[in-house]
Amino acid sequence: MRKLENKTAIVTGGSRGIGANLCTSLAAAGASVVVNYASNASAAAEVVSQIESAGGKALAVQADVAESADVRKLFDVAEETFGKVDILVNNAGVVHYKTIEDTTDDEFARIMRINVNGVFYGMREASQRLADGGRVISISTSAALMFLPTYGPYCASKGAIEQLSRSLAKELGPRRITSNIVSPGPTETEMFLGNNKEEKIDRMRKLAALGRLGKPEDMGPVIVFLASEDSGWITGQVIPVNGGTA
């Protein structure tokens, strides 16, 4: 079923990994999709090509979510191209695996600038410009519940996102706009696999009750559900999608 027919979605960090799958999943459900990317134009173009080849509508837009003006541009382009914005998926983010002791000022500032400021700017813009009955979905991490060493700054940024999402749910509820969090477990993405040694990857795999790492395509159906009318009575919630990891 094309549950998102005549809807427009913005997906930040939509060119690779989980974000790319979220774009194609939303498009398959009928949404027109703005595929945001920071630097990899060819990867974003490939996502757009996949969507258009399947009969969908999509547009790649370069923007640094850590810059409020760039986030405004995402909404401007979406409105100019598709007429409105119904769905915002805050997916863009960076990982950081260092102890608190070893994390520099610049490293901590970078992760907060991208992971927290970027989501805040998106939520603020959505508060002003999202259509009534719209959806805000933000990506967190199940690692926030696992108390793992070297994850402190990263999980701190995701904890901030969760609190922002809960407040936004209350603020936008009168307009029937919902705000929820999807919390993936360890997932087979370039970012996760490229930043961890095989020993750690195998350990994470074994932590899952279902005995494997997540795949980007595990997230798409959950995002489509939260973006659709089916989820209209769900807001301010954290939805774990982690195979029983945490």
From TrEMBL:
This is Enoyl-[acyl-carrier-protein] reductase [NADPH] FabL. InterPro entries: KR_dom (IPR057326), NAD(P)-bd_dom_sf (IPR036291), SDR_fam (IPR002347). Belongs to the short-chain dehydrogenases/reductases (SDR) family. One of its GO terms (molecular function) is enoyl-[acyl-carrier-protein] reductase (NADPH) activity. Its EC number is 1.3.1.104. Keywords: Oxidoreductase. Residues 7-187 form the Ketoreductase domain. The keyword Amino-acid biosynthesis does not apply. The gene is fabL_1.
